[in-house]
Q: What sequence folds into this?
């Protein structure tokens, strides 16, 4: 690594010291901010192109004018340089690189592997549990649709283990023919394992083999005069054949991703059409962050390098544009995933049709996003005019309170900017130490916790603070800001109108003590209502999670000396928590492992 002087960076002198080996270079400005990460097969030649050319594109010239330091990392091969470049771009997010913004992991179907009766389940996150993972799927909807289908076809259980282990009779899924009730042993482990095997084969794309095996079993059952079994297998085979005919895409016999890119108005949309085992799994759209003057080919090249860095790679990647370093990317991906990967840009027949489909999807998604941004921008401008602000607000925060008769009170804070919701800045506050049902105290506590950091010079300051409620809630917000010495924030209450109908809300301006009725046609009110509704949704979902967690917790868990084994023994001996509560100390002592001291502690915990 070779740094240059921060005082006066002389690119020509720096280039003269460089090696001709492959590697990665990084440009920094005078504040130490990373501007750009690039890779090169010849560092001297590539870095020299930035400082030795008489003319450059405006984007490149703007970046070069800010360079105060350059660092290089020499690698053994160009392929290593490509991998390192992709890792650094994803980790460091340089300003002038094309950056894939994808902070959400892909969902999988999970088949547990350490139980007598395995379960199928939706999974997102680290894949470190024993069992098998099928996917990735482009969306949660695709996984749930597949799980619903698996339940109909193979009747493998999908219930939680805690629910499964505590059943004494079959559940509703058995009654409607979607489960074989392994929880109460209505199916043998051998037969259940066979159903699991069929499910695995189906998820691996071997549906034709499953159909053949089931058809053979149907004939055997018929020959043995077991007509009920034969009829059940016949229906299963018919359903599988129908599904196979509907979902199988002619020509997509291999794992394949079809990728198209469209750029308009400084926004790029990359649309990916997924095929696995000949079945279309749908599409997913991405909106990478762009530097100026980016071209679709550059976007696709950076997208592939970053996207497949930590994901399974299909055997074919079909692109709508020829990209730089196509052969190198193919070689790196082949080494990474252990099988041949082809990148194709000139395709015919069905693949050309798939590419047209991806291109149409990218264009439609991009058009929709641009229209959405323009609509959102108009709403922010209308809110500026409505409130008489000098400039459009850049950050809106809204607070709401949710509880059920005072139980499990949760406050939410959602954040909106000119590009829409900023979900990474959302916050929830579990409220404690107040009189149950006191919304004013809950609001005061949540706002205090949020704006204490602002008062200490930490955290972003909103331009507008929206409070879901009337003058009482607004007064709490003003008190908190005054107590903490936070100024310069416009506080607005959003009160429901008569009849609680949408469009009739009243905006309470805390600073001037005025009330505004924008009316149902006001774009500003549409924005405020959208932020308020999102805050309401976020608060309710947090409250429900907290309430369910509290209700699932047993009082016995708080008794010192009562672990999982003794708790289970108590509930089994008395038929549930109600039976334990009705028992006296002497009766509690009859349970194995419960002495008098522990029995008295249990009794006191349940009756105080």
A:
């Amino acid at each position: 690594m070779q740094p240059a002087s921060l005082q006066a960076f002389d690119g020509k002198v720096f280039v003269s010291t460089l090696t001709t080996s492959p590697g990665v270079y990084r440009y920094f400005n005078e504040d130490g901010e990373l501007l750009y990460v690039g890779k090169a097969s010849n560092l001297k030649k590539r870095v020299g192109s930035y400082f030795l050319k008489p003319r450059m594109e405006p984007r490149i010239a703007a970046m070069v004018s800010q360079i105060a330091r350059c660092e290089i990392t020499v690698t053994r091969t160009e392929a290593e340089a490509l991998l390192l470049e992709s890792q650094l771009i994803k980790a460091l997010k340089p300003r002038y690189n094309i950056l894939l913004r994808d902070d959400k992991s892909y969902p999988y179907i999970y088949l547990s592997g350490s139980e007598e009766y395995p379960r199928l389940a939706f999974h997102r996150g680290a894949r470190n549990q024993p069992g098998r993972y099928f996917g990735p799927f482009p969306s949660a909807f695709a996984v749930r649709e597949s799980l619903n289908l698996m339940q109909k076809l193979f009747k493998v259980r999908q219930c939680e283990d805690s629910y499964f282990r505590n059943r004494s009779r079959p559940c509703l899924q058995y009654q409607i023919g979607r489960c074989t009730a392994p929880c109460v042993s209505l199916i043998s482990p051998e037969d259940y394992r066979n159903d699991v095997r069929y499910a695995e084969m189906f998820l691996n794309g071997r549906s034709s083999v499953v159909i053949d095996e089931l058809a053979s079993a149907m004939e055997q059952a018929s020959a043995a005069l077991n007509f009920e079994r034969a009829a059940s297998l016949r229906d299963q085979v018919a359903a599988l054949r129908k599904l196979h005919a509907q979902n199988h895409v002619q020509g997509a016999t291999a794992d394949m991703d079809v990728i198209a890119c469209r750029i308009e108005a400084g926004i790029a949309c990359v649309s990916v059409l997924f095929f696995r085992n000949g079945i279309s799994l749908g599409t997913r759209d991405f909106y990478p962050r762009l530097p100026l003057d980016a071209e679709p080919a550059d976007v696709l090249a950076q997208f592939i390098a970053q996207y497949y860095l930590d994901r399974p790679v299909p055997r074919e990647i079909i692109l709508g544009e020829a990209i730089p370093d196509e052969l190198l990317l193919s070689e790196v991906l082949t080494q990474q995933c252990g099988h041949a990967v082809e990148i194709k840009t000139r395709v015919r027949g069905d693949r050309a049709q798939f590419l047209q489909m991806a291109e149409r999807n990218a264009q439609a998604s991009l058009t929709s996003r641009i229209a959405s941004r323009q609509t959102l921008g108009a709403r922010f401008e209308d809110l500026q005019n409505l409130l008489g602000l000098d400039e459009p607000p850049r950050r809106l925060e809204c607070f709401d309170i949710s509880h059920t008769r005072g139980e499990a009170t949760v406050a939410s804070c959602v954040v909106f900017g000119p590009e829409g919701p900023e979900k990474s800045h959302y916050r929830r506050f579990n409220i404690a130490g107040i009189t149950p049902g006191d919304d004013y105290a809950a609001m005061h506590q949540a706002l205090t916790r949020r704006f204490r950091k602002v008062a200490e010079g930490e955290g972003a300051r909103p331009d507008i603070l929206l409070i879901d409620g009337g003058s009482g809630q607004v007064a709490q917000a003003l008190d908190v800001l005054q107590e903490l010495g936070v100024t310069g924030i416009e506080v607005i209450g959003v009160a429901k109108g008569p009849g609680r109908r949408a469009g009739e809300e009243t905006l309470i301006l805390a600073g001037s003590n005025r009330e505004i009725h924008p009316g149902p046609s006001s774009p500003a009110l549409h924005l405020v209502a959208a932020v308020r509704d999102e805050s309401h949704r976020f608060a309710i979902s947090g409250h429900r999670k907290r309430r369910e967690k509290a209700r699932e917790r047993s009082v016995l868990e708080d008794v010192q000396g009562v672990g999982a084994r003794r708790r289970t023994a108590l509930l089994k001996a008395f038929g549930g928590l109600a039976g334990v509560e009705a028992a006296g100390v002497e009766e509690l002592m009859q349970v194995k492992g419960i002495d008098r001291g522990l029995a008295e502690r249990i009794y006191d915990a349940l009756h105080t």
Summary: The chain is about 45% helix and 20% strand. Residues 307 and 339 are 17 Å apart (CA to CA).
